[in-house]
Amino acid sequence: MQHNQSDSAKPAGQGVGARVERKEDARHLHGKGQFVADMHMAELSEVAFLRSPLAHARIVGTTLPVEGAGRVVLRETMGDALDIVAESLLPTYQPSAQPPLAAGKVRFVGEPVAMAFAPTRAEAEDLAEAIEIEFDDLPVYASAEAAKAASADFIHEGWTHHNFLTLKADTRFDELAGQAKLVVHRSIDLARHCMVPMEGKAVLAYWDHQADMLVVCTATQVPHMIRTILAKCLGMDQGRVRVIAPDVGGAFGYKCVLQQEELCVAWLAKTHRKPFRYLEDRREHLIAGANTREHHYEMTAYADERGKILALDAHIVIDGGAYSVWPFTIGLEPGQAIGNLPGPYAFRGYRCVTECVATNKPAFVPYRGVARTGVCFAMELTMDAVARAVGREPWEVRLENLVPAELMPYVNVTNKHFDSGDYPASLLKAREMIGVDAVRERQRRVEPDGRLIGLGFATYTEQSAHGTSVFAAWGTPVIPGFDSAAVRLTPDGGLEIRVGVHSHGQGMETSFAQIAHEILGIDISRIKLVHGDTAQTPYSTGTYASRSLVMSGGAVSRACKVLAPRIRHIGAHLIGARPEEVALADGRVLGPGGGVPISEVAEAWYLRPDRLPADVDPAGLETTTGFKPKVDTGAFTYATHAVTVAVDPETGHVEILDYVIVEDCGTMINPLIVEGQTYGGVAQGIGTALYEETPYDANGQPLASTLADYMLPGATEVPHMRIHHFETPSPHTEFGAKGMGEGGAIAPPAAIFNAVNDALKGLGAEVAHTPLTPRRLLEAIAEAEASRHRKAA
User: Fold this and answer.
1) Which tens digits make up the pLDDT trace of 441-473?
2) What is the crossing angle of helices 372-390 and 748-760, to 10°?
């Protein structure tokens, strides 16, 4: 990978901006990580679930195996456990009750109906398979269209229609649309697919008899929130529930909600006072975890003769699956879609209706980018369609529409507060890096093998670390506020940091240590991050929405800034200087007459109080401090991706020839981590664009239940990428940092499709449905050819 640095030189030390290798990689690369599957306990039982083979049916009879007496559980057995209900204050919202095991009916293929436990997973699966369930079929709603047309037999009792909710926006639409010289319409679709983290769901629960509490070890992004909801659903005080998240092998949003399996396994441990564990296998994930990305867009752009958009009209339909998940609810996806569809563009007329429809599929779960991959795809394909309609280069039309740097900070048509940045500069830099003129010349020459060359762009904004006001407007059951960090100097001069967020691959053990080092000067090898344990860390709503570095990282910064003057005060006394004369650097308190190691400061506080100054702060060498940004509507990262592709019109194969990224996530705490997150996100975006899909038949049966059917990009499908960084600090955060963990996955589908459509424009073909399989591409070419013949006739 090529690393194009921003203009400012990167420091070679360990603090903010340094390219420090990740501390956590040492254990992972040597197989020393501690995941739920690595845990061993005496009397541990493995849990297997019997899952529904039908998408919608009543349960009319159950026969349990004799050999499973006491080891098979149905919903009626769990009478002291509540259903999972995620309330919302959004108007038109219809809540759903998700039982831990299906009660009375099943609502999607793969829904847990019963669970069995045994000393081994194989024995538990045998028990589960011996359970006999009699079903009475109900009408299946395998698409949003079918669900909207229903007049009876609704998925949830008490409902009179299948819309979870409908959101509407209208800002000066009629006024500005009426001024347009050009109207461009496109229908655009994203397929439903899975998140496919390396580690699926994983949970082990046991009863700690010494502490007299339930302990749940689970692969989660949000341990404190899981503790809150488990205690509620199990009728327990939160003080008697401890949630521990060990190493987590990827999550991407899949593990930021309460899973049915977490509640079931926790209930087993509470009830039997013994340890139980469930590990999701890949087939279960591909069937019951097909829960993201399925959007349909009707986009109409109203523009002037140069392609400057005056107004946008959109109708978005989201297939939300069978349940609204806790805590974010199904409202998160349509809320993000209607609010973020305009992206980085400056038009002022906007009308949008977003419907989220319940269907007989797995419940929709937030996935890396939460709706923004979809809205970027729709907006950017529409932008290219406008460029073709006015006969201009797509990058020129984008430049005409992007928010100019001189207008920053800027409040857009959906009241998004863009805090800083230069969107046009990112586009122009991407144009330079991809070499537009050279690509156009190559197109004119024609490839010897008959392939068609195409060039595509996509520019997006990523709303990161949005907080109280945003979530309060969505009315979610849990609303984030301040994140807290606790820092403590150890008696030998090391530093302990405790935060409530949890890493599932973001490198927090390194980046948070760099923040502390920047302020206190302690070597990062002596800084320890404690996270993922509700018994040892301050409360946080957790890791999601590109918030951890901004929120908890900001709290680490603030806490270290509280601790620093206390350390300086003691150190100054030890060397006979005034506190204002000393500074912290290289693990020492340095003054005009010399210095003293921070370890001596710690020793004085903990072991030699006789050496302390008389006016020492009795709060000591530890503190807990909270943080949230000055403006909590989010810090806005942005980027432009540009891609060159070669399309084979005979086979439908697409090859990515070149891929460039120009991104700005504010001040980079660690550029290596930023780039790793970006590259990984692009790989996932390529999967969305070209490979990943869970299709369903009319009976709601998933048609991709193994990795032989569900395609993922591998090393040969992920291209060489070149990345360039801008750094425009946010005025609202510590160090000017912005979240960026989701950004890499947002733009690739749009950039790749735009490049393919650019390659196909001579054939009159256009594609707008993910994934871009060879079949879909060849069908588009065939339809364009048939259309030409019809017109000629």
Assistant:
1) 999 999 999 999 999 999 999 999 988 988 988
2) 30
d(CA 742, CA 190): 18
Distance from C-alpha of 568 to C-alpha of 586, rounded to nearest angstrom: 13
Non-local CB neighbours of 157 within 8 Å, separated by 6+ positions: none
pTM of the model: 0.96
d(CA 159, CA 359): 13
User: Is 106 within 8 Å of 133 (Cβ atoms)?
Assistant: no
- Tell me phi and psi for residue 89, to 5 degrees: -95, 0
Are 515 and 16 in contact by the 8 Å Cβ rule? The answer is yes
CA distances from 298 to 125, 305, 354 (A): 45, 22, 10
Cis preceding-peptide flag for 477 (omega within 30 of 0): no
Residues 6+ positions from 754 with CB-CB distance below 8 Å = 380, 381, 384, 394, 454, 456, 457, 458
Q: Answer for the pair 317, 371: CB distance below 8 angstroms, yes or no.
A: no
Bridge pairing between strands 594-597 and 622-627:
unpaired
Cis peptide before 65 (omega within 30 of 0): no
Kind and range of the H or E element at 428?
helix 423-434
Distance CA 26, CA 32 (A): 8
CB 21 within 8 A of CB 14: no
- pLDDT, one tens digit per residue, over 511-522 is 999 999 999 999
Rounded-to-integer distance, Cα 356 and Cα 528, Å: 44
Query: Is the bond into 771 cis (omega within 30 degrees of 0)?
Result: yes
The pLDDT assigned to 10 comes to 55
